[in-house]
Design goal:
The chain is an alpha/beta fold. The chain has 2 domains: about 10-65, no CATH class; about 70-155, no CATH class. It is built from 6 helices and 7 strands. The strands form 3 sheets. A 3-stranded parallel β-sheet has the order 1-6-7. A hairpin with a 2-residue loop joins strand 4 and strand 5. The radius of gyration is 18 Å and the shape is globular. The two termini are about 15 Å apart. The relative contact order is 0.14.
Length: about 160
């Protein structure tokens, strides 16, 4: 099962997220290229929370100013999902759990993956932290309840 959240669109192809370096992917000629492995951190960021916080703040400001190419981000997302499906092998059911508020959900759907949309479950109340888009305990509980129902349906069998 793969959980896909809206921040995955830009994080899949970003070398730095939340002030820390991480592996990232690039889609070149329909091939996935993995970069940033092994992960290295600048010396100051390894030893100083202040330096790490400054790196994070700087990266967030850069991201806010940078233009985004949503079509390229969706293409990378589809390629990653397709690779996941290919790696799993035949006969292995894979689910993509999505909370992306995109009017064109079909951009995220990859043939062979079962799509479970949890947006309605997350609309049930305060399911994210106040200053953070990540799910809080109520959000996780709402998604778990939605998955329980979805995984019991005949469509998943």
């Amino acid at each position: 099962m793969r959980v896909f959240c809206s921040n995955d669109l830009f994080e899949n192809g970003s070398a730095v997220v939340y002030g820390k370096r991480k592996p990232w992917f690039e889609l070149a000629d329909e091939s996935l290229l993995l970069h940033g492995v092994p992960v290295t951190q600048p010396f100051g960021a390894r030893w100083s929370l202040l330096v790490r916080a400054l790196h994070k703040l700087n990266r967030e400001r850069e991201f806010a100013r940078a233009p985004r190419d949503l079509e390229a981000e969706w293409a990378l997302e589809r390629a990653l999902s397709a690779q996941l499906k290919a790696t799993a092998g035949p006969g292995v059911p894979l689910f993509i759990v999505s909370e992306v508020p995109d009017p064109d959900q079909s951009r995220a759907i990859v043939p062979g993956l079962i799509h479970i949309d949890v947006r309605a479950a997350l609309d049930a109340g305060p399911t994210c932290f106040e200053h953070d888009p990540h799910w809080n305990a109520a959000g996780h509980a709402a998604v778990a309840a939605c998955l329980r129902v979805a995984l019991r349906t005949d469509a998943v069998d």
